[in-house]
Amino acid sequence: MDILFQDWINLILRWAHLITGIAWIGSSFYFVWLDLSLRKRPGMDEGVYGEAWMVHGGGFYHVNKWMVAPKSMPDDLHWFKYEAYFTWLTGFALLVTMYYWSAESYLIDPSVMALGKWDAILIGLASLFAGWVIYDLMCKSPIGQSTGKLAVGVFILAMVAAYGFTHVFSGRGAFIHVGAMLGTIMAANVFRIIIPNQKKVVASLMAGETPDPALGLQAKQRSTHNNYLTLPVLLMMISNHYSMLFSHDQSWLIVGLILIVGGLVRHFFNTRNAGGTGKAIAWQLPAAAIGMAILAMFASYDPNAAKMADQDVITANHAQAIIQTRCTACHSANPTDEGFDEAPMGVMFDDLAQIEANAQRILAQAIIGRAMPLGNMTEMTEDERAELGHWIRKGMPE
Question: Is 238 within 8 Å of 269 (Cβ atoms)?
Answer without folding.
Answer: no
